[in-house]
Amino acid sequence: MDSTPRIVFFGTPDFAVASLAKLTGSGFAVVAVVTAPDKPAGRGLKEKISPVKQFALLNGIPVLQPPNMKDPVFLQQLSEYRPDLQVVIAFRMMPKQIWALPPMGTFNLHASLLPQYRGAAPINWAIINGEQETGVTTFFLNEQIDCGKILLTQKVIIHPDETAGELHDRLMTLGAGVVVQTVNLIVAGNFSEISQDMVSDCDTPLKPAPKIFRDDCRLDWNRDVKSVHNFIRGLSPHPCAFTNITFPDGSVQTLKILRSSPGETDQEITPGQFYTDGKSYLKVSVRNGFIHLNEVQLSGRKAMNTVDFLRGYRSIFPETRAI
After folding, report:
1. Residues 6+ away with beta carbon under 8 Å from 287
2. 289/185 Cα distance (integer angstroms)
3. How far apart, in Å, are the Cα atoms of 60 and each of 35, 50, 55, 57?
4. What pLDDT score does 80 carry?
5. Which segments within 42-127 are labelled E, that is strand?
6. What is the DSSP letter of 214?
7. Which of 139, 142, 146, 99 is nearest to 122 (CA)?
8. pLDDT, tens digit (0-9, with 9 covering 90-100), for 259-311
């Protein structure tokens, strides 16, 4: 086998593109990419291609888009690329006949410090749960989701007001470097595999990172100020925390909250009440304080800072409460 392995890359979103670009820019031979099928999107329902496919087409890399990972035609096409190694980032589950195909194995990049936050939304849940650090992990795939033997990990600090979007971008860049390091170690045969059971602290329960659905994003103003603030930033900018507000005409609309800041108080307050001077601030009472809404978005409208939002929608909050 040549010292430069034939790599097949599996991925779909922007998070995967950084690693694909880093691999090709480092001189590795990515002989094909596997990504999600094109999907209709937008008002015109035009076919939308994935970010990974966009990069592959611009760089002359063949693209495979199987609707079914067990499709015999796809499996034959994949085997014809004779992969020595496969890299998987932000992709769906795959059967053993795929991840066991290359002689060097198939490894995945996950945006958490495994075994913590196994699942589809590790970045979001780490912030929602108020973690102070996270990181990325590369590991060999096996039969169980996110449970394979660890190759490399790298930690980062989560900043107090950092959003999921901001952390996503940092981990995307960090992860690309770790992916290249992992490939170099595998090619050199200079790597060790660590069972996730060996790095798990028996006294610390494992925290999952399941997929987040719209109903999971509804704000509960009865929680404490720190939890609500973490919830907002953990879902920003996507899928976004929201609450419902009533307009003067009685209609109810969804208000998404993209940025907030917390403020505690010793006063007796009723959770879920809006307070504003109609010009410069908008805040909501929670169990032990206030959540200042710094950036919001009504359904179907653009995101706005508080000052601009109140300039156009102050009539929603007719009572000015100074507290």
Report:
1. 222, 223, 224, 225, 271
2. 50
3. 15, 15, 9, 5
4. 98
5. 46-48, 63-64, 85-89, 106-110
6. G
7. 146
8. 999 998 888 889 999 999 889 999 999 999 999 999 999 988 999 999 999 99
Cα–Cα dist 283/228, whole Å: 12
The CA distance from 15 to 164, in Å, is 13
Domains in the chain, ordered, with CATH?
A: 6-199 (3.40.50.170), 214-316 (3.10.25.10)
Radius of gyration of the chain (CA): 23
Please answer whether residues 261 and 161 qualify as being in contact, where contact means their C-beta atoms are separated by less than 8 angstroms: yes
Count CB neighbours of 175 within 10 A.
Answer: 25
Helix 51-58 × helix 14-25 angle, to 10°:
30
**Coil, helix or strand at residue 32:** strand
Token pair of 203, please? 């006294």
Q: How many residues are recorded in the chain?
A: 323
**Backbone conformation region of residue 117, classed left if phi is above 0, alpha if psi is from -120 to 50, else beta:** left
Question: d(Cα 118, Cα 210) in Å, to the nearest integer?
Answer: 8
Torsion of CA 244, 130, 261, 306, to 10 degrees: -40
- Is 41 in contact with 48 (CB distance < 8 Å)? yes
Query: In the beta sheet, which residues pair with residue 276?
Result: 282
What is residue 261's DSSP assignment? E
Per-residue pLDDT of 113-172, as tens digits, reads 999 999 999 999 999 999 999 999 999 999 999 999 999 999 999 999 999 999 999 999
Give the DSSP letter string of 149-171. Answer: PEEEEEEEEPPTT--HHHHHHHH
